[in-house]
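W.,

You were right to be curious about this one. When I first looked at the sequence I had no strong expectations either way, so I just let the prediction run and decided to look at it fresh. Below is the sequence, 143 residues in total, followed by the output.
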Amino acid sequence: MRKQLGSVALLASSFFFLTGMGVKHSEVKAQSSVKGKTVELAFKIKLLNEEKKSEKDYVQISREGPWTLELINTKGLKLETKEGKFTTLTFDDSLPGFKVKAELDGAAPAGKVDYMVRAFVCTTDKKTCYTERHKGSLDWKTN
């Protein structure tokens, strides 16, 4: 029984270490703007390197990994959704992150979208990489 508990604890800690869960290496800065009848949503990835003690601990954005943006609750925006979600894999290197432009659907003066960004970062030596999921909500409002 003791060996089984030890094995379970080792597996759980390995899972958290290997998947990067627990310690976050990035965050999302989300903003919205409205120009005419177009809403632009931007989801910028910001690296969290401030607390690192040595150069080998620093992370960088890796384009080699899986990047995804999902938007849910897109009421008021003309976006092509599947099963209630708008999904894009189109990464904007200039942010870095995702930009989505959508026409207003009707006369909605404001709205709120829920988002999930899947980001991929690696240490500078690329020996360790982390897939991170960021969830949040973003409000938009016409002028």
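Here's what jumped out at me. The helical segments are 2-19. And, maybe more interesting for your project: The longest strand covers residues 110-123.

Coffee later to discuss?

I.
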